[in-house]
Amino acid sequence: DIVMTQSPDSLAVSLGERATINCTSSQSVLHSSNNKNFLGWYQQKPGQPPKLLIYWASTRESGVPDRFSGSGSGTDFTLTISSLQAEDVAVYYCQQYYGLPQTFGQGTKVEIK
Amino acid sequence: QAQLVESGGGLVKPGGSLRLSCAASGFTFSDYYMNWIRQAPGKGLEWVAHINSAGTTKFYADSVRGRFTISRDNAKNSLYLHMSSLRAEDTAVYYCAAGVAADYWGQGSLVAVSS
């Protein structure tokens, strides 16, 4: 199984400041057939289901604010919130869909400092 | 607007069975891979099972293989998860999710396994 490891487990950021979450996979999730990274980022607010923010590692889902961006390739990925808003308080998960079983990172809790 | 609605959860004794359903609307269900993903209380996300758009290919997590069965009925825009030999560690909110990357999620259905 591909193991997904996120860092940090939690972070507190001031409103308007940048938040950065890292995700490392135990093997590459870059598929040679289409040169795409099979990596997604999800946001989960309390009492709600997860919501897809980013797919193919860097493609923003429709309707997702442009302060959210994804980067990276191969085994190392980053989700950046460029200017943290109060509504961004949530747990964020990375997920690989390169292989089965699909696997998630353990989650990163983002709070306001 | 895409919508997924799960039903069928509840309290069941260890060793018991339960069938979850997921009704889809607002998108072309028959075009999408479908997944069941669960979340134990206070824990992270765990992928459970996956079925392709035609219903001909199915994959399961090791933790549920041989006990859970995923199926779909494209004519009814519905996804199912039949769960048997349930254990306490199967207690979780079960989400259905559409897409290889899970584009759409339901609100979840709570399954509690306890004597």
How would you spell out the order of helices and strands of chain B?
Answer: EEEEEEEEEEE
Summarize the main sheet of chain A: 7 strands, mixed
User: Mind summarizing the main beta sheet of chain B?
Assistant: 7 strands, mixed
Outline type of chain B: globular
Radius of gyration of chain A: 13 Å
User: Outline of chain A, from the CA principal axes?
Assistant: globular
Question: How many strands in all of chain A?
Answer: 13
How do the helices and strands follow one another from N- to C-terminus of chain A? Answer: EEEEEEEEEEEEE
Mean pLDDT of chain A: 97
Kindly state the percentage of residues in helix of chain B.
under 10%
- Content of β-strand of chain A: over 45%
Query: Helix- and strand-based class of chain A?
Result: mainly beta
Low-confidence stretches of chain A: none
- β-strand amount of chain B: over 45%
Distance between the termini of chain B: 40 Å
Descriptive key words:
heterodimer; A: 113 residues; mainly beta; 7-stranded mixed β-sheet; 0% helix; globular; B: 115 residues; 4-stranded antiparallel β-sheet
Could you please describe the fold and organization of this structure?
- The complex is a heterodimer of chains A (113) and B (115).
- Helices cover 0% and strands 51% of the residues of chain A.
- Chain A is mainly β and 113 residues long.
- In chain A, the strands form 3 sheets. In chain A, strands 2, 6, 7, 8, 11, 12 and 13 form a 7-stranded mixed beta sheet that branches.
- In chain A, a hairpin with a 3-residue loop joins β7 and β8 (59-60).
- The radius of gyration of chain A is 13 Å and the shape is globular.
- The model of chain A has no long low-confidence stretch (mean pLDDT 97).
- In chain B, strands 2, 4, 5, 6, 9, 10 and 11 form a 7-stranded mixed beta sheet that branches. A 4-stranded antiparallel beta sheet of chain B has the order 1-3-8-7, with no helix packed on it.
- In chain B, a hairpin with a 5-residue loop joins β9 (92-98) and β10 (104-105).
- Chain B contains no helices and 11 strands.
- Chain B is 0% helix and 50% strand.
- Chain B has 115 residues and is mainly β.
